[in-house]
C-alpha cells in the first residue's frame, strides 16, 4: 500500500481491513472483525506517544521496520494475555524503546504457553530469590503437575559487534562506489570470505576500480583481498543467494516510487558474510548464562531464546547442549525464529514438560 495510514485512526484501520483476506501479500485466516479487534488492542495498549504510521507495508518502530502483521499478532497476544495476573508488567516493557522488541518476544512466548492445554494460570513478573537477591523472571505458569518459571532473552544479533562492523564495512564500500565513476547500469555484489588482510579503507577503492573494469567488459566475477565480487547488469538477477544463512546488507536506489528491498534493478550494492555461526552460538551461550541468573536453582524453569536462526540451531544444537551442560532445574530450552521454535528437553525432564504443556509440546 502506497498511501500513508495512521493506525491510531479507526477509519484508517478500517481501510486496511477492507483489503482482507490478503494485506501486503500476507494471507490472513482470521475474520475482518478479529483483524480489527487485534489492531484495536495493539493501538490501545501500546504507549500512546508511539507513532504508528503505516506505508509501503512497513511500520517504523524504534529503528526497526515492523509490518501490519506484527501489530495484528501482538494484538491477538494481548487479547489472550490480558486476563493474566500482573499483565501490566508486560506492558511496561513496551514503554522503553530499548526493551520494546524484548517485550514483543516475551508476549509471543507467553501467548504460546498460555495456549497450551495443560496450563491453568500465568503470572507475569513473579518475585523469586536467586543467588541471595530478589529477581523477577518474565512469567510463571501453573499446571496440574506444578509450576514453571520462564525467562526470555533476545540474542540481539543485529547489535552485536560483528553486525555493526559488517554494516560499517558495507558503508565504506558504498562511499567508495559513489565517489567513483561507477556505471549506473551495473550493480556490485560483494561476499566477505574471511578475516581482513588489508584495511578496508584502502581495499574498497581497489575493489571499485576493479569492478569498473569488469563492468566495461559486460560484467563478471573476481576476487580481491578477502572479498569475492560480482558485477552484473541491473536487469539481471542477483548473483547472491538471498536465502543463504549469514549477514546480508543492501543499498537500495529509490527511483521516486516504492520498490521492493529485493528488487535487483534498484540495488546497486549488495553484500554478504557467511562465517557467523560461531558468533550466534557465542551469543546463545551468553544469553543462557544471563537467563540463569534470574532463576532460582531449586525451582523448575524454562529458558526461551529469540532471534536465533533455526538452521543454526538444527545443525549445532545437540552438540552445543552437551557442551553447555544445563543444570537439572532447567526443564526446557526453546530457540525461536519469528513464530517458529525448536525445543530441547533433557531426557529426565521430558515427561514433566509433556504433562505441563500437553499436546502443545512437540520435539
Plain-language structure description:
- The longest helix has 19 residues, at 161-179.
- This protein has 2 domains: 1-82, no CATH class; 84-363, no CATH class.
- Helix 1 (10-17) runs antiparallel to helix 2 (32-45), helix 3 (68-81) crosses helix 5 (100-115) and helix 8 crosses helix 9 (310-324).
- A hairpin with a 2-residue loop joins strand 10 and strand 11.
- The protein has helices at 10-17, 32-45, 68-81, 87-94, 100-115, 161-179, 200-216, 277-292, 310-324, 350-357, and strands at residues 5-6, 22-23, 26-27, 53-54, 59-61, 64-66, 119-124, 128-130, 133-135, 139-143, 146-154, 186-192, 220-224, 227-233, 247-251, 269-273, 301-306, 330-337, 340-344.
- It has 10 helices and 19 strands.
- 31% of the residues are buried.
- It has a 6-stranded mixed beta sheet with strand order 7-10-11-17-18-19, with helices on both faces. It has a 5-stranded mixed beta sheet with strand order 13-14-12-16-15, covered by helices on one side. Strands 1-4 form a two-stranded antiparallel ribbon.
- The mean pLDDT is 89.
- With 363 residues, the protein is an alpha+beta fold.
Amino acid at each position: 500500500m502506497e498511501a500513508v495510514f495512521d493506525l491510531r485512526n479507526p477509519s484508517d484501520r478500517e481501510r486496511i481491513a477492507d483489503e482482507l483476506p490478503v494485506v501486503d501479500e500476507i494471507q490472513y485466516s482470521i475474520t475482518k472483525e478479529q483483524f480489527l479487534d487485534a489492531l484495536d488492542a495493539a493501538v490501545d495498549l501500546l504507549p500512546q506517544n508511539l507513532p504508528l504510521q503505516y506505508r509501503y507495508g512497513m511500520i517504523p518502530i524504534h529503528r526497526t521496520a515492523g509490518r501490519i502483521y506484527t501489530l495484528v499478532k501482538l494484538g491477538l497476544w494481548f487479547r489472550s494475555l490480558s486476563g493474566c495476573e500482573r499483565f501490566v508488567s508486560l506492558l511496561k516493557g513496551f514503554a522503553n524503546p530499548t526493551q520494546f522488541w524484548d517485550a514483543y518476544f516475551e508476549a509471543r512466548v507467553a501467548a504460546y504457553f498460555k495456549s497450551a492445554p495443560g496450563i491453568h494460570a500465568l503470572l507475569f513478573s513473579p518475585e523469586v530469590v536467586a543467588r541471595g537477591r530478589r529477581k523477577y523472571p518474565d512469567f510463571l505458569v501453573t499446571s496440574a503437575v506444578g509450576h514453571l518459571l520462564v525467562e526470555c532473552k533476545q540474542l540481539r544479533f543485529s547489535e552485536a559487534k560483528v553486525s555493526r562492523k559488517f554494516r560499517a564495512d558495507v558503508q565504506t564500500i558504498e562511499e567508495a562506489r559513489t565517489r567513483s565513476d561507477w556505471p549506473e547500469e551495473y550493480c556490485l555484489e560483494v561476499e566477505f570470505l574471511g578475516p581482513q588482510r588489508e584495511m578496508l579503507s584502502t581495499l574498497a577503492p581497489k575493489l571499485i576500480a576493479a569492478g569498473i573494469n569488469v563492468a566495461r567488459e559486460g560484467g563478471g566475477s573476481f576476487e580481491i583481498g578477502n572479498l569475492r565480487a560480482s558485477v552484473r547488469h541491473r536487469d539481471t538477477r542477483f548473483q547472491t543467494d538471498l536465502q543463504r544463512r549469514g549477514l546480508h546488507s543492501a543499498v537500495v536506489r529509490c527511483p521516486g516510487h516504492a520498490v521492493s528491498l529485493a528488487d535487483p534493478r534498484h540495488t546497486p550494492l549488495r553484500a554478504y558474510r557467511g562465517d557467523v555461526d560461531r558468533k550466534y552460538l557465542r551469543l546463545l551461550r551468553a544469553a543462557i548464562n544471563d537467563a540463569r541468573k534470574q532463576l532460582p536453582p531449586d525451582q523448575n524453569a524454562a529458558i526461551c531464546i529469540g532471534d536465533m536462526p533455526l538452521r543454526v540451531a538444527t545443525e549445532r544444537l545437540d552438540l552445543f547442549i552437551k557442551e553447555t551442560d544445563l543444570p537439572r532445574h532447567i526443564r526446557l530450552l526453546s530457540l525461536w525464529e519469528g513464530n517458529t521454535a525448536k525445543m530441547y528437553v533433557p531426557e529426565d525432564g521430558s515427561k514433566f514438560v509433556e504433562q505441563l504443556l500437553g499436546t502443545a509440546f512437540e520435539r
